[in-house]
Predict the 3D structure of the following.
Amino acid sequence: MTGELSPIDKAKFVAAKRAADLVEDGMRVGLGTGSTAAWLVRCLGEMVRNDGLKFKGVPTSSRTAQLARDQGIEVISLDEARWLDLTIDGADEFDAELNLIKGGGGALLQEKIVATASDRMVVIADAGKEVETLGAFPLPVEVIPFGWQTSQALIEEMLVSLDVMGRAATLRMNGAAPFVTDEGNHILDLHLNRIGNARQLALVLNQVPGVVENGLFIDICDTVIVGYGDGRIEVRDITEGTVERDRLDFVESENLFTDIGD
Ligand code: 5RP
């Protein structure tokens, strides 16, 4: 990326930068996927190279693994790590209870496994991701390719009896072909508009044959770090019930702000 960052990118960056300070020597850390998580990996890479930070990263996608290695971060698998001190990831939506919709980048399966295997999950997000009720963002559901249209039909039928405002399930595409996840699966995006009972929906979706996992993260996230375009940061912790406010002076460093991508 070159030139001036947009306010949303600045917001993502300050949230990521604040979260990077939570990583300490010797930790095993889950590294999320997406554009906000990419800022985090960049910040951590800089801390490894410049400050001698020593930690092991468990990426949640092949994209993040590549970026982390490029940044000089030591990458290990979840099986090697077994359990993590911390996972830091982005989100597509979060509500006041810190329940989330994730999977906009198609990595929800690894993201949910890694976050669940962590002592603490911290979400980093720009303020636009906060919602009163989850569901405006289409809910990603990972399905195996075999019989995906049957899974789609079963999901749409099941949604009739649930507290949602829409029930169209569309196959995510990558150009002319179906999108394929790191596990070789497809994604159905559920256009629900409003999810009345996210906890119930998360449980019921995973009962449908062919569904591997859904993008509702219920009671998994402990802390959200919200970034604003003017450098303000809010750290909200659901277990402690605390809100800390801070501001990060925004200095564009050449190395960090070139060729960023997710
Ligand atoms: C990837 C995700 C991402 O965390 C989510 O889509 C947010 O992405 P971004 O930080 O680019 O807005 O769940 O599967």
Observations:
- The chain has a mean pLDDT of 95.
